[in-house]
Amino acid sequence: MTPGARVAAAITILDQILTGVPAEQALTGWARSSRFAGSKDRAAIRDHVFDVLRAKRSLGEGDGRSLMIALMRRDGHDLAALFNGVGHAPPALADDECDAPVPLDTPAACDVPDWLWPAWQASLGDKAKAVALVQQTRASVFLRVNLNRASRADAARLLAADDIDAAPVAGVDTALRVRSNPRRIKLSQAYVDGFVELQDASSQWAIGRVPVKPGARVLDYCAGGGGKALAFADAYDAQIFAHDINARRMADIPARAARAGAKVEILTTDALQDADHFDVVFCDAPCSGSGTWRRTPDAKWRLTEDDLDHLGQMQKEALAAAAALTCTSGLLAYATCSVLCKENEDIVNAFIDNDGSWKIVSQEKRLPDADGDGFFICVLQTKKTT
Ligand SMILES: C[S@@+](CC[C@H](N)C(=O)[O-])C[C@H]1O[C@@H](n2cnc3c(N)ncnc32)[C@H](O)[C@@H]1O
Q1: Which residue(s) pair with 380 in the sheet?
Q2: Nearest C-alpha to atom 12 of ligand 1 is from which residue?
Q3: Which ranges carry the SAM-dependent MTase RsmB/NOP-type domain (predicted)?
Q4: What proportion of the chain, given as a percentage, has pLDDT over 90?
């Protein structure tokens, strides 16, 4: 496909997304009905679509065509070469499409919804604008090296044999940043043999914030696909358990654990009721994902105030349930991939206010940057232990 034809395809897909079709669904649907497109075409079109979604507001919030014109203009492309009606390229620009963009107020320029801007500012203070601007950019792909299988340097060498360039991330001993060919990872020998797993560097960092003693019983509560459980299993000589209120979300854990050579015991809601208490409970609560909006930009635009309130309720319930599963001398970790205080500090403070037997051991927040997504983690323990 020509560059212009790729732009035309992105316009078609964006118009679908703007009617409410989820981005992944629109991309997959287009790929299925466009067998002529090769993998490089699909990747380039996907990049166009996601670049627009990250910056939909600052690009003018028009239809697919006006958004793509604004993106190509912002990124310094030759509009006449892309929009010329030749072959499958979109038609040439009309006179009114050649107008210079109008200056924007701060929330619009930062691609943050107006309703969210006050909470965004309150949460991030003088970093509010900078963090929002980071979310307009593409995030790197990160790998977690299974140090039981290989050193980080050996894993990087193995990836290089499959033409994947990956470099260490400073401050996170297990993390590699993929610098070339990220789409080949799942076919690479290093991945197939369980030397590496896809996981953001900030999630890996969070695992290191929770001290786990040898032999400890560790529960990944809110386990989803088990990314945290697997990271605990690789990092510590401990008994690892996984639970999610939605059992189907844990379906991939056995295969992932087998690939990593890790043991993770899955606990259904019934099994959890009969289980002994745990030395560590990691509550990776459902959240807005506001620290990961580079990867899921349409989630930013779909989020509503009601959603945030509803998530707050779920977060409170999940934290209280996780606390009830933690043994008296144990550690309770509350984590989200959100940067909003409402989902982090406010939830922890409400929990402590409600149950005076808990105290904070440590609390840290990573903001999204070149080294990973945004992430919040608070480790608590009962006062009874001191
Ligand atoms: C942020 S995701 C977990 C991501 C996962 N830990 C990972 O690393 O891929 C939150 C998960 O919490 C689950 N969940 C929500 N409320 C829950 C509750 N009260 N108890 C257990 N799981 C819950 C959801 O089904 C969802 O899979």
Answers
A1: 332, 360
A2: 222
A3: 131-386
A4: 95
User: pLDDT digit string (tens) for 18-56?
Assistant: 999 999 999 999 999 999 999 999 999 999 999 999 999
Whether 332 and 380 have beta carbons less than 8 Å apart is answered as yes
ipTM of the complex model: 0.97
Atom of ligand 1 at shortest distance to CA of 321? Answer: 19
286 CB near ligand 1 (under 6 Å): yes
Catalytic residues: 337
C-beta of 291 in contact with ligand 1 (< 6 A): no
- Where residue 40 falls (left for φ over 0; alpha for ψ -120 to 50; beta otherwise) is alpha
- 171 torsion bin: left (phi>0), alpha (psi -120 to 50), beta (else): left
In this structure, what is the dihedral angle of CA atoms 207, 208, 213, 215, given to the nearest 10 degrees?
Answer: 40
How far apart are the CA of 289 and the centre of ligand 1, in A? 12
Q: What is the pTM of this model?
A: 0.93
Determine the pLDDT at residue 383.
85
284 is in an annotated binding site: yes
Structure tokens at 348: 């922890």
Find the DSSP H helices in 33-104: 39-54, 64-74, 79-82
Answer whether 322 contacts ligand 1 (Cβ < 6 A): no
pLDDT at 99: 84
C-alpha 332 – ligand 1 centre gap (Å): 15
Q: How far apart are alpha carbons 367 and 13 in whole angstroms? A: 31
| Centre of ligand 1 from the C-alpha of residue 356, in Å | 25
Residue-range domains of the chain with CATH: 3-101 (no CATH), 141-199 (3.30.70.1170), 211-385 (3.40.50.150)
User: Whose Cα sits closest to atom 20 in ligand 1?
Assistant: 245
**Residue 212 near residue 280 (C-beta atoms within 8 A):** yes
Helix (H) or strand (E) holding 326: strand 326-336
Residue 386 has pLDDT above 60, yes or no: no
